[in-house]
Design goal:
Helix content: 55-70%
Number of strands: 10
Shape: globular
CATH class of the largest domain: Alpha Beta
Strand content: 5-15%
Distance between the termini: 48 Å
Strand order of the largest sheet: 1-2-10-9-8-7-6-3-4-5
Structural class: alpha/beta
Order of helices and strands: EEHEHEHEHEHEHHEHEHEHHHHHHHH
CATH superfamily of the largest domain: NAD(P)-binding Rossmann-like Domain
Number of helices: 17
Oligomer: single chain
Length: about 350
């Protein structure tokens, strides 16, 4: 593996230079990969595998949204699309278990009884295995148990692949019974479109992932944006001004530049007034936020967050209740203002 200096800490990563797609194709030449679940990750990873010449089939409950989407993406019932879990798993040497976390708990008894010695059981999240006391997911001792976790949504896995950029992924081996688990894992990671792969463990993956989702990836940033917007509105600023100063400038101007060049570059490239204020207030937000992140990490590690996910997401009326929550955001003044602002972007004129 290549040794890269990450801010003074040297880590080993797997790059495409040392493990090109051609090598991944050779490693996976005799494998049949079954994708269980056609949600965001199942969609993105299966299509990338197919485009990269890997023998892949999809197993999805018939008649639902995922089944219809799979048909629309060119999967053919009876050929590479199956509704029967046992039939699909019987054909596979690698089983990619990509259902939702609550779905994995519900389907585990069916999946477990159909696993065969020497198969690889593949996850893209450490949730089910690490929190097995809540999920019941304890893999049998005669299969490889591996993980490739793209650092982005399943949709991004696909769009980045089509754009030629790929997406970074972590990888881990929980159980190696064939002696080939590591090679299988890295080959699959390259074949699903990873730009590079960095090692982790199942536990570290789920703890960092759940913290990130609830933190700066979505939860924290949504809360901070809402707080700033509400303060500006309470002080007499118009909805368009409050939204532009809170969200539009961030997402359309600053965040892409930060992603491309780094925060240090952004601090150096802005006006001196913005520079001084941002540098000073960054420390205040750090001090104010750290206790929340410590609380968040504790709740993730102790299983508080995973229990909430399993309890709520497995409820029969979850989708209906979720829609109510989503509608609250959609119908708030802030995000109605956002819809109006987005419609005024030059690329949306006339649409």
């Amino acid at each position: 593996m290549a040794v890269i200096d990450f801010g003074g800490v040297k880590e080993e990563v797997v790059t495409r230079e040392e493990f090109p797609l051609s090598k991944a194709q050779e490693v996976l030449r005799d494998e049949v990969v079954a994708i269980l679940g056609y949600g965001p990750q199942g969609h993105g990873q299966s299509l990338n595998l197919r485009d990269n010449g890997i023998n892949v089939i999809v197993v999805q409950r018939k008649g639902g949204r995922g089944w219809k989407e799979a048909i629309g993406d060119g999967w053919v019932e009876g050929k590479n699309l199956f509704s029967d879990t046992a039939e699909g798993m019987q054909k596979a040497t690698v089983v990619q278990y990509l259902l939702s976390d609550a779905g994995q708990k519900a389907m585990w008894p069916e999946v477990k009884k159909n696993l065969r010695k020497g198969q690889a059981l593949y996850f893209s999240h450490g949730f089910s295995v690490v929190f097995h006391e809540q999920t019941g997911v304890i893999p049998p001792p005669d299969v490889d148990v591996i993980l490739v976790a793209p650092k982005g949504s399943g949709r991004t896995v696909r769009t980045n692949y089509l754009a030629g950029s790929g997406i970074n992924s972590s990888f881990a081996i929980f159980q190696d019974v064939t002696g080939r688990a590591r090679e299988r894992t890295i080959a699959l990671g390259i074949a699903v479109g990873s730009g590079y792969l960095f090692p982790t463990t199942f536990e570290k993956e789920v703890l960092s992932d759940l913290t990130g989702e609830r933190g700066v990836l979505m939860g924290a940033i949504a809360g901070i944006m809402k707080a700033q917007y509400d303060v500006l509105r309470s002080m007499g600023h118009s909805p368009s001004e409050a939204f532009n100063e809170t969200v539009e400038e961030a997402t359309q101007s600053l965040y892409p530049l930060i992603g491309k060049n780094g925060m240090d570059w952004m601090f150096g490239a802005c006006s001196t007034t913005a520079q001084r204020g941002a540098l000073d207030w960054a420390k205040k937000f750090e001090m104010g936020s750290r206790p929340l992140f410590e609380l968040l990490y504790r709740d993730v590690k102790e299983g508080v967050e995973t229990k909430r996910v399993l309890d709520t997401c497995s409820a029969p009326d979850y989708r209906e209740k979720l829609q109510v929550e989503l509608d609250e955001w959609k119908n708030s003044e802030m995000w109605k203002a956002g819809a109006a602002v987005r419609s005024l972007r030059p690329e949306n004129w006339g649409k």
